[in-house]
Amino acid sequence: MMDTYTFYQNMKRDGIIFSFTGPTSQSVVESIGELLRRKMELEETKMSVSLKVFSIFVEQMQNVLNYSAETESTKSPGNDELHYGMVTVGKKDGKYFILSGNYIEKQNTARFQSLLDRLLTMSKDELKTLYLEQRRKEPEKSSKGAGLGLIETARKASHLEYVIVEADKDRNFITINAVI
Amino acid sequence: MENLIIEATKSAPSIILNAETRIFVISGESYPENAAKFYKPVIDWINNFFDQQSSEPVTVNITLHYFNSSSSKVLMDIFDILDTAHSNGTPVTVNWRHHAENDTAFECGEEFKEEIEQIDFNIVEFLDEEP
Description:
The complex is a heterodimer.
Chain A: H1 5-13, E1 16-24, H2 26-42, H3 47-67, E2 71-73, E3 81-92, E4 95-105, H4 106-121, H5 124-136, H6 148-156, E5 159-166, E6 171-179
Antiparallel strand pairs in A: 1-3, 2-3, 3-4, 4-6, 5-6
Helix pairs in contact in A: 2-3, 3-6, 5-6
Chain B: E1 4-6, E2 14-18, E3 23-30, H1 35-51, E4 58-67, H2 69-87, E5 92-99, H3 103-115, E6 120-126
Helix pairs in contact in B: 1-2
């Protein structure tokens, strides 16, 4: 049997508060979000900080929920697919971080990459301008309005980084780390 | 015209659009799974409302503790409709209410205000827990 003690200790050592891996749903976003808020309240986190953490958590989690390229069809009507991914929230050296990972289609990789590269070089004022501009635009057909969530994450984070690795023939895996 | 009332959930706000008093209230949290879908009946109702011939003033009270980026997009659409109604002769006042400690909600209000041309947009601070 696998011993989870070392695994658990390593997570603790890395400051991880919780880590979710698996199929996501709106109710998971809501319930983990609520716990996260309660945890930050207990720690008497400033409202401005806890709102930033919550905001990035929701954007990243809903990103996985809407765009992850790892899916499983369900039979229930209306809820056609489950989307898999992972979202981890932790606190290290006094700073909260939100780490998320999911598969993306190879054909969408360039779009993610160019947007993220652009966001990484932008100042907070430039990010604000881009956010307001994108908010007024009609969503692109294939993107379901993605992009705005990433811009929002970049605006709220004090540090943002990402890495994309090749996963298989059709997909890559993207990891985004946002530090508050 | 019938009023539109939607009860709040964990991730969607309470919505009360009153055709008689001409007061619209949106309050709570807004991060539904699909914001465009959630707000569709709201936008349809507001569009129908302004199709009725009346130029009596309208008041919109919004208290959102948190909203996600896709809700933000829909709110912008709603403000655009209100802006058009205002230029067509129906005075619209928006009261954007935020908790004194919620700087984020305050800044979001400012950002909407910058984007709006016609309507009176007030940013109102409150202190206690009441919405």
